Amino acid sequence: MEIILSPKLIRLESELLHQKQIRISVLRLDTLHSQISGNKYFKLKYNLEEAQKRGNTKVLTFGGAYSNHIYATAAAAQMLGLESIGIIRGERREPLNATLAFAQKSGMHLHFVSREAYRQKDQTDFKASLQGQFGDFYLIPEGGSNAFALEGLKEILGLIKDDFQYIGTACGTGATMAGLMLGLKAPQKVIGFSALKGGGFLWEDMKVLLQDYFHQYTQVGGIESLDVWMRTRAELMLEYHFGGYAKNKPELRQFISDFEAAQQIPIEWIYTGKMFFGLLDLVKKDYFKAQSHIVALHTGGLRG
Ligand SMILES: *Cc1c(COP(=O)(O)O)cnc(C)c1O
């Protein structure tokens, strides 16, 4: 699954940025592909390659009813001629929403499980019962986030030809942020904006992902003080969640419509809206030195 990778880097124009002498450029990953948008392509790339290497003809993954990852996995599996199974949190509701209807139309078998059962998804017993039901499959974790994902996400940095000091991203599982850490050249830093409330777990989750990555991809099998390594590469913002995942706040709505009108770049209120709000708020608060160049990742999340 190779798609042509030449995302545009678009400079934001605003009075505030001009006045503070800060450059923000948006890396439009959302325009890479109509169905496998944004960061999800990079997460799936080596996972699907691995599935094929292992001779698996079936992939199984997990997500909520509005999951961009479910949507992208269904599309990518269909492109590659793989069967796909989506374990969906919660009850089946008819008619299916747009995400699930698309996934099903793309050939994904949707299997709904209760919230309680879904919470067991990382347990061996649960996996064994899925194997009993669906036979052999290649398992992609929730959000597509694992060491293979990090290897793909790391490649995002190779798409940026300009010099920059910071790269901003929205965070769900933190895999995108962790992948960016791997591809940066110090003293460049990634700034992550948590879309979830109480994102304190994110740092620990990223640590686990990075440990797995180092075990899988490097001989050293890990680095000694991972915390220090991470802190020199990353800053995590937990104050821009607007009430939590998929909570719809008027202030954020207003920001998004103003932003879209001024920049002609569509964004949404679950992930990218929060990141842009946060970045511009940090600019206001003089978080960045004058003349800094910040690349903001448009991780997608919108569908035509
Ligand atoms: C999935 C998603 C994210 C979150 O990525 P993580 O790697 O899980 O942190 C961010 N933005 C958009 C648009 C997404 O769909």
Structure write-up:
This protein is of the alpha/beta class and 304 residues long. Helices cover 41% and strands 17% of the residues. It is built from 12 helices and 10 strands. It has helices spanning 15-20, 39-53, 68-80, 98-105, 115-119, 124-134, 147-153, 175-183, 201-217, 226-231, 250-263, 272-284; strands spanning 9-11, 23-28, 58-63, 83-89, 108-113, 138-140, 166-171, 189-194, 234-237, 293-298. The strands form 2 sheets. It has a 6-stranded mixed β-sheet with strand order 1-2-10-7-8-9. The two termini are 21 Å apart. The structure holds pyridoxal-5'-phosphate. Pyridoxal-5'-phosphate binds next to α3, β7 and α8.
Outline:
This protein is of the alpha/beta class and 304 residues long. It contains 12 helices and 10 strands. The chain has 2 domains: 8-34 and 150-298, Rossmann fold (3-Layer(aba) Sandwich), CATH 3.40.50; 57-136, Rossmann fold (3-Layer(aba) Sandwich), CATH 3.40.50.1100.
Which helices and strands occur, and which strands form pairs?
Elements: E1 9-11, H1 15-20, E2 23-28, H2 39-53, E3 58-63, H3 68-80, E4 83-89, H4 98-105, E5 108-113, H5 115-119, H6 124-134, E6 138-140, H7 147-153, E7 166-171, H8 175-183, E8 189-194, H9 201-217, H10 226-231, E9 234-237, H11 250-263, H12 272-284, E10 293-298
Parallel strand pairs: 2-10, 3-4, 3-6, 4-5, 7-8, 7-10, 8-9
Antiparallel strand pairs: 1-2
Bound molecules: pyridoxal-5'-phosphate.
